[in-house]
Specification:
Chain lengths: 258, 278
């Protein structure tokens, strides 16, 4: 596979070929899940790396997103005298869109790149071939645990992100701008629905985004040319492809789920 | 019922290559290559760079498929094995990578224990004893808790060797085991290869360029060039067999059957002098 960007007329063809190969790789990953169950400890280890180690960035970003959102909404809604609805709008925006999308983008930057670089370097230093030679299936031992870890970690991280964003909104809205605490929470609980906002937004979307980011990261790692330049290109491709896939998938999911 | 693809144990040939033909990116790497690797001996594969020595090892281990021909390991046709049987066969083969290929997340002990943990349900105490036994054999029991990035090139090669022999394999494949080693480390690796062959009777295949080192350990040498075996024989006498291939390779001549120039078009034309030459 060529590590360089496709040239000229080949862009569309090569992009389609990449998507097709990625789809076939997904089938290989899914088929390897039963074999990877014996590497449960490796999945837990990866869950720690991609999940727990991403908590700081997710929490900090979630807090600031909520704070900024509340500031902007307060400024706009105050012209209509509707500042009491700010908390509710922050919550709906975060649960339905910002939470899953921003968490997935951060996850791609923090965990996706790390997965791609790690697997790419394992290939470059023959560690993947060494596993093959020790009769250990690298798809079951290396790829699937990372894919599953991404799938499990994303909804959990998204939940933390949303909680921190609401907290950030509360800090700015109630503590700083003086919105009534009771109004803030009652409006929010009156409007936010478990199925359409929490299940469809936080859970369903983040699961889909987690699967896409983890798949792209693992695929890029496994198919990167085993050179330092190849690993660098693959890491960049993970961020670019994941970002486009997240935003495009978000549109599709939103259209179907609304 | 006897296995039709499995040879009788008394077969003196462990690896049999017949008519192996491989074409990579339009270049013929092997052209109906035939060779036999005897059981219990140390066999060296030599040849100019890019001649396909490592590719041959990949064919033996089933990492690569040939365009034609067959590779039989212990009587089993590698290309026809199912994934499960291929992995089972690999459990009986140790492979020493040129760059050692140690797992960088694990320390020395865990690297050697890795195959045992993956393929056995041995109690921890037995795994510990087996790993220490192998590390003692390569002289690195004291380095058991070092990480791969704390090892020198020679030490990493010996740890990889300990990992390769942890299952007491029937065959060990060494890919350029002497590259980048100082004389002390080179002699240590040489001693280990010889000891493993003599004490355990492990069949060894070495891909290397160092004739002096090969002379000390190998029983037989194959010189491969242009996709075929161009010379073979005793490592102590092969350099004097008189063929142009051995004369160039072992004499270190820059030009000869292996051309100095990579195949290219007309030089004058490339420099833009084609018109002036007329």
């Amino acid at each position: 596979m060529n590590a360089r960007a496709p040239q000229g007329n080949n862009v569309v063809t090569q992009s389609l070929a990449q998507i097709g190969n990625c789809g076939l790789f997904l089938l290989t990953l899914l088929a390897a899940i039963p074999r990877s169950l014996r590497y449960f400890r490796e999945t837990v280890r990866q869950l720690w790396f991609v999940g727990a180690m991403s908590l700081t960035i997710i929490m900090v970003c979630g807090l600031f997103v909520g704070m900024v959102l509340m500031l902007q909404l307060y400024s706009v809604l105050s012209t209509f005298g509707g500042t009491s609805a700010s908390g509710m709008v922050v919550a709906v925006a975060v649960y339905r869109e910002l939470g899953p999308v921003v968490t997935a983008l951060l996850f791609a930057g923090r965990a996706g790149t790390s997965i791609t670089a790690e697997i790419g370097l394992m290939r470059a230093t023959d560690q993947i071939d060494a596993m093959e030679m020790m009769a250990v299936d690298p798809i079951a031992y290396v790829a699937t645990p990372r894919f599953l870890a991404g799938l499990i970690a994303m909804p959990l991280l998204c939940t933390v992100f949303c909680a921190m964003a609401v907290l950030g909104g509360h800090l700015v809205g109630v503590t700083w701008l003086g919105i009534d605490n009771g109004t803030f929470w009652s409006n929010m609980t009156a409007v936010v629905e478990v199925h359409s906002d929490i299940v469809n937004g936080v859970l369903f979307k983040s699961l889909a985004f987690g699967a896409v980011v983890a798949l792209i990261a693992v695929y890029q790692g496994f198919t990167t040319p085993p050179t330092s330049e190849g690993v660098a290109y693959a890491t960049t491709r993970t961020v670019v492809a994941s970002s486009i896939a997240i935003l495009a998938l978000d549109f599709v999911l939103t259209a179907f789920l609304m | 019922m006897t296995d039709p693809v499995r040879a009788a144990p008394e077969d003196s040939t462990l690896v049999r290559v017949r008519g192996l033909t491989t074409v990579l990116n339009g270049k013929t790497i092997f052209d109906a290559l035939d060779l036999d690797i005897p059981r219990g001996k140390v066999t060296a594969i030599m040849g100019p760079s890019g001649t396909g020595k490592t590719t041959l090892l990949k064919h033996i281990t089933g990492q690569m498929r040939a365009d034609a021909g067959e590779v039989l390991v212990d009587g089993q046709n590698v290309a026809q094995l199912s994934r499960e049987r291929l992995y089972k066969m690999r459990e009986g083969i140790g492979y020493l990578f040129q760059n050692s290929a140690l797992l960088t997340d694990f320390d020395v002990f865990e690297n050697v224990a890795f195959p045992l943990r993956q393929h056995t349900a041995l109690p921890e105490v037995l795994i510990r004893n087996l790993v220490l036994l192998k590390l003692q054999a390569v002289g690195l029991r004291g380095a058991a808790r070092l990480m791969p990035n704390e090892l020198s090139g020679g030490m990493a090669r010996r740890v990889a060797l300990a990992r390769a022999i942890v299952f007491d394999p029937m065959l060990i494949l060494y890919d350029e085991p002497f590259v980048g080693l100082d004389p002390v480390a080179l002699n240590q690796v040489l001693k280990l290869i010889r000891t493993l062959n003599q004490t355990l009777g492990i069949t060894s295949v070495l891909v290397a360029h160092e004739l002096e080192a090969i002379k000390q350990v190998a029983d037989h040498v194959f010189l491969i060039a242009n996709g075929k075996v161009v010379a073979q024989g005793d490592p102590k006498t092969i350099a004097n067999d008189g063929s142009p291939w051995t004369r160039q390779f072992f004499g270190g001549d820059a030009d000869g059957p292996v051309p100095f120039q990579y195949p290219a078009g007309d030089y004058a034309q490339a420099l833009g002098f084609a018109g002036a030459a007329k």
